[in-house]
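My current task is to audit a protein record that another person submitted. My question to you is simply how this chain folds and whether the tokens agree. This is what I was given:
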Amino acid sequence: MHVAEKRKRVLVVDDERIITDTLVTIFRHDGYDAVGAYSAEGALQLVETWVPDLSILDVRLPGMNGIDLAILLRAQYPQCRISLFSGQAATASLLDEAARAGHSFDILAKPVHPSVMLKLAEQTLLSSPNSDADGHAFCN
């Protein structure tokens, strides 16, 4: 009997709706089970019933920022891989603050070509959770 492989779940969180919706569409087209949220708070509500394998988070979000969201997701769902991206240079202070608290992150700079995002997702999901062996943009 052949058992179908479970489609990997990808959560995209960005307050720019066009970015979220476009990435969700791209991931779905590539065979992922993808959903989007437009805020960290919306993402937290969503993951209560739908836990992703990979979360792609914008750093600058209204309310809670993406780094704080990444820290919460990592604590609550340690098997979820986390990728961060940002279009703003002002994320350095957030990274420094997280590093002082013991959380190390790399961030992809926007804009990110869809093929790069898909390759990142594939490599991230194939790696062990919370590792950064290839220097990709996800939580260590």
